[in-house]
């Protein structure tokens, strides 16, 4: 039976995800409280079943993480994102984002949560993704670069001349000699450096499920509006419009003097090596300036072992939430449903302490006016039936049927908080 299917054991999940199993606590991963959606390379979206959501959580269990992805071309199958709309709408609380891919007919998953990233080899895909294995898209192991052909350069200037944004449209121009194309690896980031004798500024472009394309075209462009004249690195995944722009903090100019492509340009971007792409000169405040724009491919740092476990513990151990509710939860509810009552931070702390101090008993009381309590910690959850016997407060684990009685002082505070 899968590690996560029934219980988050003390040894595994208190250490890794902040889940406890002590006295009343029997927190478990609850895929029913997650929603999951897979995005295929084609852009098609697929809703994940509860069993698939369980599979994703199981696949991302942080044991046996690899130090690096095996060599070879990667076949990208799809990326699954999990969220818990019941308690949050913040993307920071989403865990994990799981990207499934194959190398040499072996299946892997890359799991990501905020700054944490790790890769594991797995036995099989979630069932919902299996029919799309044959539609996998190749993703290169490294990033390659090539200079644009003459007809592509002309097309770049034509696309840059098209209106973008709101009226009155800024006048855009592209420097055709600066246009290059780079293939996008599976992960990592491109680092662009704008360097001059006075400044050295870097801008990161992460490669993830939202930005990952077969290739990226980029070149120097300018925008002139009524309010400003600005230069920037204009980007496009399909050589159209070039409306995405990366700019240093001060990208203003009075007059552009010209641009020159670096020579020679590399054909392969060796990770962590900086390569000049082009230089350009301009006048600002009556003074000449020159900048060199360079590109660096940064490989993603993969975590494993104790370092991964420590990071996971730091990130998830203290994510707690408490909901009291009049109706049983289906797991698909929005956090704004009228029958849900979300506790504030102080109450959350009290509830966890009160449950931790509660004592096992043989029976419970009469159902409370708000008869359900669900607590969330890390990626785990647990639901109790709440009942009263005069001033006594009882919690019954809805999964095991075990009864627990709060201490007298905790019961008094419970009534003050929840029965006003």
Overview of this protein structure:
By secondary structure, the chain is α+β, with helices and mostly antiparallel strands. The protein has helices at residues 10-16, 50-59, 150-160, 305-316, 345-357, 408-418; strands spanning 28-29, 35-39, 45-47, 74-83, 97-103, 106-113, 116-122, 137-139, 143-147, 171-174, 180-183, 189-195, 200-206, 215-224, 229-236, 244-246, 255-261, 268-269, 274-284, 287-298, 320-325, 340-342, 359-361, 366-377, 380-389, 392-397, 403-405. Strands 1, 21, 22, 23, 24, 25, 26 and 27 form an eight-stranded antiparallel beta sheet that branches. It is elongated and about 85 Å long.
The number of strands is 27
**Compute the gyration radius: what is it?**
27 Å
Give the overall silhouette: elongated
The residue ranges in which pLDDT falls below 50 over 5 or more consecutive positions are 1-7, 9-15
- Our count of helices gives 6
